[in-house]
Amino acid sequence: MLSKVEEIKASALEACSQAESVKELEQVRVRFLGKKGELTLLLRGMGQLPAEQRPHFGKLVNEVRDELESALAARETQLFQEEETRRLAAEALDITLPGRPMMRGTVHPVSQIIAETKSIFMNMGYEIVEGPEVEWDYYNFEALNIPPDHPARDMQDTFFITEDLLLRSQTSPVQIHVMENRKPPIRILAPGKVYRADSDITHSPMFHQIEGLVVDRGITMADLKGTLQVFVQRMFGPDTKIRLRPSYFPFTEPSAEVDVSCIMCAGAGCRVCKDTGWLEILGSGMVDPRVLAKVGYDPQEVSGFAFGMGVERIAMLKYGINDIRLLFENDVRFLKQFSSQGGRLC
Amino acid sequence: MLVSYKWLQDYVDIPWGPEELAHRLTMAGLEVEGVTPLAANLDRVYVGFVQEVQKHPQADSLKLCSVDVGAQGSYSIVCGAPNVQEGQTVAVALAGATLPGGLVIQPTEIRGVLSNGMICSQAELGISDDHAGIWVLPNDLAPGAPLVEAVGLDDVVLDVSVYANRPDCMSVIGIAREIAALTGGEVRLPALDYQELDVPIGEHTSVTVEDSERCPRYTAALLQDVHIAESPLWMQLRLRAAGMRPINNVVDITNYVMLETGQPLHAFDFDKLAEGRLVIRTARPGEEMVTLDGERRQLTPEMLMICDAQDPKCVAGVMGGLDSEVTDETNRILLESANFSALNIRRTSRALGLSSESSSRFEKGIDASGTLLASRRALHLLQNLAQAQIFAGHIDVNSSAKQEPVIDLEPAEVERLLGVSIPPETICRILRSLEFDVVELSPELLRVTVPSHRGDVELQADLVEEIVRIWGLENLPSTLPPDRSSSGGQSQLLTAEGHLRELLVGAGLQEALSYSFGRPDSNERLLRTEPPMIALQNPISEDLSALRRSLLPGLLEAVSLNASRQQARAALFELGAVYLGELPVEKQPREEARLGLVLWGRRSTLNWAAADEQYDFYDLKGIMELLLPWPEVEWIKGSDPAFHPGRQVSLLLQGREIGVFGEIHPAAARNFRIPGRVYAAELRFEEILHLFKQTPVFQVPPRFPAVERDLAVVVDADQPVGELVDALRKLGGELLDEVTVFDVYAGKPIPDGKKSAAFSLRFQGHRTLKDEEINVIMDGCLAGLRERFGAEIR
Lengths: 346, 794
What we know:
The complex is a heterodimer.
Chain A: H1 2-18, H2 22-33, H3 38-44, H4 54-90, H5 109-123, E1 127-128, E2 134-136, H6 137-140, E3 165-167, H7 173-181, E4 186-195, E5 206-216, H8 221-236, E6 242-249, E7 252-261, E8 278-287, H9 289-294, E9 303-310, H10 311-319, H11 332-335
Parallel strand pairs in A: 1-4
Antiparallel strand pairs in A: 2-3, 4-5, 5-9, 6-7, 7-8, 8-9
Helix pairs in contact in A: 1-2, 1-4, 2-4, 5-10
Chain B: E1 2-4, H1 5-11, H2 18-27, E2 31-37, E3 45-55, E4 63-68, E5 74-79, E6 89-94, E7 108-110, E8 113-115, E9 117-119, E10 136-137, H3 147-151, E11 156-161, H4 172-183, E12 207-209, E13 217-224, H5 233-241, H6 249-261, E14 265-269, E15 278-282, E16 288-290, E17 296-298, E18 304-307, E19 312-315, E20 319-320, E21 333-339, H7 342-352, H8 357-362, H9 371-386, E22 389-390, E23 395-398, E24 406-409, H10 411-418, H11 424-433, E25 437-442, E26 445-449, H12 460-471, H13 492-506, E27 510-511, E28 517-518, H14 522-525, E29 546-547, H15 552-564, E30 569-580, E31 590-601, H16 617-627, E32 633-637, E33 643-653, E34 656-664, H17 666-671, E35 678-683, H18 689-692, E36 707-716, H19 721-731, E37 736-745, E38 754-763, H20 771-789, E39 792-793
Parallel strand pairs in B: 12-15, 27-30
Antiparallel strand pairs in B: 1-11, 2-11, 3-4, 3-6, 4-5, 6-9, 6-10, 7-8, 13-21, 13-22, 13-23, 14-21, 15-18, 16-17, 18-19, 19-20, 24-26, 25-26, 28-29, 30-31, 31-35, 32-33, 33-34, 34-35, 36-38, 36-39, 37-38
């Protein structure tokens, strides 16, 4: 029977090495090691041996079985790897085909500029407030030191609904609403739609402004300059410079136009800044004492600054848009160009 | 205002070139928008003298001129101008010159005769658009001199943008004052002297001012034997530099002095005035007159007129009348230098749709104390340039009692507003340089008297502006306000808007922005009969004339535009207000924040990996489910006429409609010229702000295995599946975690009029569930569906 063991071992190892698939290998295992396998049967027939031979024989069969099992395991690993290699080779895809399209949403460029600006000022402790777009003449003009027939009304071609009701031509009336309803300290930012009867490549009958107002004891024009300095550096980059130029607005005194160093050429001079190196982006000034008095503040006690900017102008500068009307056409080919590039969008 | 650099130099020393001056003025609050040379490069263009003019041998319309160009030699030049004559001094372009129009001058044979240059018109030299003939120069110019220097074209024009509060700077002297303040120099006033006749003006004329409110001051002078002629070249060039056209010496002088002093003047032909006297009054009802531009103007009783004894002769401060204008025959002139109420000029100018250099100055408000100075200056020039004889004195009807205001200024106030301390002596120096009178009452108090031409300065803050703009805003330090205000932040509404924007962009939609106003028939286009929209009084077009009551028309317009531009899909949303008010409009309409969205065309861009499918109702419903995950919101069948009657959902919260969505009614889609089906939603999200704020309550994820069972039933084809789902949720009891519809099918082998609906039910408990107990629940579910909906197991 010992020779029979050797015989089975030889043929089992042979069969193991001949197996060409995991399936065949399993058949080999069943044939030799299964319940009715050759080696199993041999072990079961051990009773026929004389008792003194049995330990030796048993040990021998177990050794063969261990040997066979490890050979099967090794062969199985080998076959599995070979099979997987073949399968992977067969599974190669055309990686040049495009992926299943995911539709990319976009935030309107005007909303992006507003969101960025809001975020910058909220981080400086500003509260975002809104006001009505259909506004009384009083808030849009009179309370802002622009009485009827004031020449400054010519600067803004206003849409009227009735003699007294109009579409606000600026976000500045929000200043008045806020000051009428609160006491200083005030630190607000008011983005929103404004309307003027004008339409060409740089004018739209509807556009957006962002208005800022700070009123408290001891607010100075130097505070205005410092605040806007921080804003432009966060908005346009840390190297952006500002320049204040004296100007005229009926509701601020002193007033200043604010230029930033050109965001295209960094001040070297280019087509966008018309070779001046500067871009005019903001109007600003110290709140006129007449305006403070009109809302019941004591101009000797508190002072404040205000500033306002056109959102579309900044969007046009930033993205190089050459016609403001494109912003309101909603052509999907236009809109899809303004996908997120990081930063705060909503 | 356009102003010549050389002209400015007449009144003030300028240590800077034109570009530097422009920068300094801009940084001091007089924005210079452009700096342009008066003339283009005119190298090789000289003064020439026409010695001889002969007929061109080959052409009747051409002449052959012999021109002496001094040191440059003599040239034979062919000239086609009708006005060329012997003895004229002219501008000659010689070979090598390039004229502003790009013409390069070179010896050219013209009809067989060699021409060695060109005698130029003003248009050819780029000085004006006058091309009627050659430019005839004064005979005192030396032949051979370069033209630019000889006639003073070597000048630069500054385009100064004057703010509405600074009418005093709408004059050369006004700008010179600003320059003097910047340099510390002095303004030199022009010559005002002239000889008067012995006869006083009062013997020949009178002025009656009937409306002293509209006319606070009227100053008149009378002249005779005026020689009407062309004004001198230097004056013509300065007028042209300022954008005005030379007419004759009298008109030119009135314009010149207006530009110089800012005070508009008017010259009447005195012999055309009935009874030789003036009455300043408002127009009578029905009166009319023909203005200088030839237009017949209907006058109203609000308009101030300068009249003779009978009729209006001039719209005060706006434009003169045609029948009293100065002509070549004029001998006697009445010269007006007056002050009119800014408001009246503004209203009159608007009412007539007529504005002029004069009205644009008056309507901003002019210093009433300046009338005499301007009149004297004009008389000086009229005597010197038109040989006028001047009657003695002026008629001066003056009811203007404007005091020069006095403001007490504390240097501490300057520091309080600017955030920087400017020494009192610097403050005094700056204010005095601007012609303010300053008395130092104490180191803490300055008494400042405002000059009469600075009507814009009334308060300390106004003085602070004067100080800082001359001191230099660039010197201002940068500081931040002390932080003692609120912590900032934004409203729930704005936060919700941001949230919706994030969700929708994540879902692949593009944000749109439409105009807040649209077509007045927007309701009808949507088949709706809502209250009418609020109309604008002065829209820029019919299409943008009524305030929107819905975001849908704007979004559907956007779809329509994209369809017309060969786009295959659009998935857009918009966040914005609608304007809900009643007519007639008596108060502010309610501005309600809304979200609108539209889906149209392909679900995705065309691609190989999926069938080319169009958006359908359930794409939209999926988005709405993403936006509105709250069980508080009820979804019921809607009845909005803008939508397909069988494909719309009305969204309710506690019985109030908060939105609607579905397929747009095909008739409405046709109204917007949208091909194919279009899906839209509109949500009044102000109503659900409290839901956005809800904080999710954490639940421990179950650790026991779930049991999943499928159930497929056959029901009537028109049975809403949602009702089956609702029923299953109840029938499933507490252990039922989720019901999912995974198949809905009609067709063979399902009988006609029936459909199959298949559900996956997931059971979950905080223990291991037994098959037997689930079997009991499933039996109950089926029995319930059978009883309520006649459902049969498939």
